[in-house]
Amino acid sequence: MQLEHIDKYYGQQHVLSDVSFAMQDGEVLGLLGPNGAGKSTLMKVIVGLVHAQGLIQVPERIGYLPERNPLYDEMFVREYLLFMARLGKVIRPQERVEILIQRVGLTPEAHKRIGQLSKGYRQRVGLAQALLNDPDLLVLDEPTTGLDPNQLVEIRTLIRQLGRDRMVILSTHILQEVREMCDRVVILDHGIIKADCPIGEIDNLETLFRSKTDGN
To answer: Which residue of 57, 64, 114, 152 pairs with 2 in a disulfide if CB–CB is 3.0 to 4.6 A?
Structure first.
């Protein structure tokens, strides 16, 4: 995946300014920034929901989990995923759904209505949906928001596993999430990339983040 000189305006507001970076398979990239930094807009640009100026080269198969994941609460988990698989023209939809139910840890809850699920299991449904087309690029917007400590550990582990054989971008404003899950961090502030470096080369992520987002 490659982005070059991405610019986005909403009216007079310059939401993204000259954003450029590339990714390779097997990489989990954390898009880190304060609220209002432009993270969600950039993700929508990447998945094709928002038009922007610049060069955007992304894989044909993309999976997307938005921050506010729209689910049909009245549908059963397995029923919903099968419905979405057929809607997306997934090959062998029943087989694919069963594989994903097991992979994301939904087996004990697959017989329940989505409206009965905890936040953590709702996130798993969203992840399974995003994986239906076996994407080469998985885009996750604030995937751990609102999870309890046990759910956090499980979802972090799952995201790391998913990043072994595809590109994963996840946005967050929580530094620990980046340390726990990501190989690399891109710090975004007021729509501008302030830093782009491997996690292993950062001595203190908090110090770096503060130095890049408070005007210093």
So the answer is: 57
- Helix 93-103 to helix 77-87 angle (10° resolution) is 130
Contact residues for 152 (Cβ-Cβ < 8 A; gap 6+): 144
SS3 content of the chain, % helix, strand, coil (to 5): 40, 25, 35
Give pLDDT tens digits for 169-199: 999 888 888 988 999 999 999 999 999 999 9
CATH T-level fold of 1-61+171-216: Rossmann fold (3.40.50)
66-98: pLDDT as tens digits:
988 889 999 999 999 999 999 999 999 999 999
Residue with tokens 């975004």: 188
DSSP 28-48: EEEEE--TTSSHHHHHHHHHT
